[in-house]
Structures are given as C-alpha cells and as structure tokens.
Amino acid sequence: MRLIASPILRNVVTIQLSRSRRLQPKVHEGRLNAEGFRFAIVASRWNEFITGRLVEGALDALERLGVNEGSVSIYRVPGAFEIPLLAKRLAQSRRFDAIICVGTIIRGQTPHFDYIANEVARGISQAGLESGVPVVFGIVTADTVDQAIDRAGVKLGNKGFEAGMTAVELANLYKQAFES
Fold this sequence. Notes:
Blueprint: E1 2-5, E2 13-16, E3 39-44, H1 48-64, E4 72-77, H2 83-93, E5 98-106, H3 112-131, E6 135-142, H4 145-151, H5 159-178
Parallel strand pairs: 3-4, 3-5, 5-6
Antiparallel strand pairs: 1-2
C-alpha cells in the first residue's frame, strides 16, 4: 500500500492498493437462459396494432432463450392503466418467475397521457417491490404514433423483446441470489 496525492483535489491523499492485493468482489449477473422458468405477459388491448408487436417481441426473446413449451401465459387487459394490478396479483400468486408488462401509451392533446403513464410506471414498479418477483416494464410511451411504431420493432428495436430479455436475466439472477 502506498499513499499518493490526488491529481484532482488538493490536500487529499488517496490510498492506492497494488493490483495483486486489490479487492475482488464476487459479481452476480443473471444468465440469459429461460429454460425451467415460467413467465406471464400482461398486455393491454388499447393500441393493439403496436402492443401486438411488443407481445411478439417478448415471445421471440423467450423462445430464443429456450423457454419451455407451456411456460408462458398471456393475460390481456383493456388498457395500460389496468396492467399494474393484474401484474401485482400474478406476481403474488408465485406461479411465475417473472412478469412482463407491455402496452402502448401515446400522448394526446390533454394531460391524460401524463396521468396514465405516471401511474402505470409507478404501479408496475410497486408490483415488483411488494411481491419480490421481477415485474418488468415494457410499456412504450410516445408523443406520436410513429414514435411508438419505431419502438415496437421498426427502427429502434422492440421494447417487448428487451423486456423479455430482462425478465429472463432477472429470473436467473433472483434464483442465484435467493435460492442458492
């Protein structure tokens, strides 16, 4: 161990450990393997022409990562506002290792968008926090239909696919961290 002066802050001394004695923490990351896990997809019917692409993206991710046949259930709700409560109940049921929430909220000419988007985001987060089960946010919020279409697989990737990947990674990480 040796003491050296900080190049950024005057009158500050930092301790520099040699590489051989440097702390090497154990890093935990979830694998991208869906085999043996169960997933629920909660999807809104509102803006179906976009949300349908998100569902297909999530299914594509799960299939590519090896999900077992019969291990995915899709639940449809009328709109995005209804997603959090069903996601929470599904997570609390412990029948699934992760819940994937997908939907589309497009800004209109009233503040309705802000209320819905904020409550959906808060509710999905709360569902995961209260249940201890990964509840993944795959909701597209956009100012225009074109932006929403782009986020559902045309130009900017597919947020449903990303949510599916995240769900698999978190299911693996939770199993490693809490069941080992």
